[in-house]
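Case study: Secreted protein.
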Amino acid sequence: MTSVRKEKEEHPMSMRHTMKARRALTAVAITTGLVLTVAGCGGDGGDKPDVASSSSPTDAGKDGEEKPKGEEPQAPEETVLAEVKGGADNTTLTINAAVRDEGGFLTVSGKVKNGKGGSWNPTPWRGQEKELSGNSASMAGASLVDRSGKKKYLILRDTDGRCLCTQFSGAFKADEEQTWFAQFPAPPAETTKVDFQIADMPVATIEISDGE
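Here is what the predicted structure looks like once written out:
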């Protein structure tokens, strides 16, 4: 495997303004987002995202006269690109978005839920890299594999070894769910699917979308 150092920066869609501000700041600071060549990768996989849906409300009539009501408006369903469950602690990892933006980043975001039945600390999720050891309980150990391009993408980090990803605030309580994001170097435009993996969780194949 050969590794190539890359530079880049931070945050997902719900924190877009913060992410844009820190991109400019970190563009100079980031020194590593490793891209590794992967030998003998397999074929395609992964589910298509669920389609978001909503229903329309009905209005009250004029002059205070109410018209018959139909169904109450429903909140749009959240897109789910992939969901995997497993690991020693019965954790559920959901991926809601994988967005490639013009700056050369790929931001993956979603939710993680503790299914252990007691307190769970995701310390092993920071990965085994020495450079990332100071990231405590975080998404620092996440990686992407582009099977068609035979490359592996590691999390982006700055010159101090801080990952461009969520760092959780301590242990999860029983059944607690938290949101997360992780940023990687973006695969080539022709790559539309990648495999996401972290710690001992099963591989999740996700579809990439292009940002604004």
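For the exam, be able to explain this: The chain has one domain: 3-51+78-210.
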